[in-house]
UniProtKB/TrEMBL annotation:
This is DUF676 domain-containing protein. Residues 23-86 are annotated as: Disordered. It comes from Lupinus luteus. It comes from the Eukaryota. InterPro entries: AB_hydrolase_fold, DUF676_lipase-like, Lipase-like. Pfam families: DUF676 (PF05057). Residues 87-316 form the DUF676 domain. SUPFAM superfamilies: alpha/beta-Hydrolases (SSF53474). Residues 48-60 have a biased composition (Polar residues). Residues 26-47 have a biased composition (Low complexity).
Length: 449
């Protein structure tokens, strides 16, 4: 395997490259000091479009952080409250994908516990198992938010929160953090930006002014093979082999197979004059601060399979345009088998995503009289707007290639080691995730000294 930096900057809008040496220390990270509880004005944003207000829904979830929820905890058993200094102060929530369960995280949970130390509580979410993932990203996101609040309320020692999500779980988590977000500010540096050593990387946007998630300081937001741009379009759902007729038929069939979630993934949900959910999730609206919630995290990281993933394409999982996809390296980074490239993309200022009249017309045509021409036109419009919205934040992008694995076509499940024996090609990816979590904890500790 080749020697390569742990992270570098390499995006279409920056020409500077930055290198740093990765830290292979395996000792647990000491407990860091308490997060300051300063308060400042709310992080506001200017969405590129206006959504109909859903006040009742918004009011129900605005009080999640402060109120005691009556919904029982659906996750694993959580010990009672305590104030011992030995208790974990940082919770890492693992979120599985479609038609899955907590069993998907058996290996990753054990490995994270082993590698990052006792200051972390590793919690595998179980509120959206199996067919519950068919009821819509928004419904699953609200259930996950309720579950996280129940866990946090029972652990007074918790100060920080991170998420690691696979596949559809990444979209569910993005919705959940918007429910859990509160604009309470705290003093901090953007440590993910500082790691990259770039002045561009330290740019602050209206969406990165802090805030809390479930009343805790948000640190890492990590997704593995998540379809951030949906699954519509050429190559976005690879098992269709790029055949136009199959991609045309998939959209109307999807809701019958995977319910409401299917129409949301194919961007056909809602009325023609209303933006699809994934486009709304790329901005802030009156009742949901999707981008502000993402911007509250110190570091946002997307892991993407460059090939052999039959469920999620490289473009959608790495939040890139087709023109931004080049030939990926074939050799792994030292110490992280099958992790072939890491880059940091600083925020790109823009007016945010739009939903112009031509998009309304294209959506109506794609819903009512789908054909290759109008569905392609609609998808191209929406995909570009989603990218413009999400690129208002900085992202670390990690490319993964299982081309040399014994079973490369298991890439979608290899990337998070769904089964230790069948999908163990992804152990290097989990090691990389663990070291990223530990790196951030070390930076927080250093900043607090």
């Amino acid at each position: 395997m080749s020697t390569a930096p742990f992270i570098h900057a390499r995006c279409s809008h920056t020409l500077q490259f930055f290198k740093r040496n990765k830290n292979h220390a395996s000792s647990p990270i000491p407990s860091s000091s308490h997060v300051p509880s300063s308060s400042s004005s709310s992080s506001s944003s200017n969405s590129g479009f206006t959504f109909p207000s859903r006040i009742n829904s918004g009011q129900r979830h605005q009080g999640l952080r402060a109120q005691a929820m009556t919904t029982p905890t659906h996750g694993k058993s959580i010990p009672g409250k305590g104030n011992s200094d030995d208790e974990p102060d940082h919770i890492v929530v693992l979120v599985h994908g479609i038609l899955a369960s907590t069993n998907d995280w058996t290996y990753a949970e054990a490995e994270l516990k082993r590698r990052i130390g006792n200051n972390f509580l590793i919690y595998a979410s179980s509120s959206n198992t199996f067919t519950k993932t068919f009821a819509g990203i928004d419904g699953a996101g609200k259930r996950l938010a309720d579950e996280v609040m129940q866990v946090v309320k029972k652990r007074r020692s918790l100060k920080r929160i991170s998420f690691v999500a696979h596949s559809l779980g990444g979209l569910i988590t993005r919705y959940a953090i918007s429910v859990l977000h509160s604009p309470d500010a705290y003093s901090r540096d953007q440590s993910c930006d500082l790691v990259n050593g770039s002045k561009e990387n330290s740019q602050r946007t209206s969406f990165s002014k802090g805030g809390l998630i479930a009343g805790l300081e948000p640190v890492n937001f990590i997704t593995l093979a998540t379809p951030h741009l949906g699954v519509r379009g050429k190559g976005q759902l690879p098992f269709l082999l790029g055949v136009p007729i199959l991609e045309k038929l998939a959209a109307p069939i999807a809701p019958f197979v995977v319910g409401r979630t299917g129409s949301q993934l194919f961007l056909t949900d809602g009325k023609p004059n209303r933006p699809p959910l994934l486009l709304r999730m790329a901005s802030d609206s009156e009742d949901a601060k999707f981008l502000s919630a993402l911007g509250a995290f110190r570091c946002r990281t997307v892991y993407a399979n460059v090939s052999y993933d039959h469920m999620v394409g490289w473009r959608t999982s790495s939040i890139r345009r087709a023109t931004e996809l080049g030939k990926p390296p074939r050799r792994s980074l030292d110490g992280y088998r099958h992790v072939v490239d890491v880059e940091y993309c600083p925020p790109v200022p823009s007016d945010g995503p739009q939903f112009p009249p031509k998009a309304v017309k294209a959506k109506e045509a794609a819903q009512n009289a789908p054909n290759t021409q109008n569905t392609v036109e609609y998808h191209q419009i929406i995909e570009e707007e989603i990218i413009r919205g999400l690129q208002q934040l900085g992202w670390k992008k990690v490319d993964v290639s299982f081309h040399s694995a014994f079973w490369p076509f298991f890439a979608h499940n290899n990337i998070h080691v769904k089964n230790e024996w069948l999908h163990n090609a992804g152990v290097g990816v989990i090691a990389h995730v663990a070291d990223s979590l530990r790196q951030q904890a070390s930076l927080i500790l250093t900043a607090s000294l």
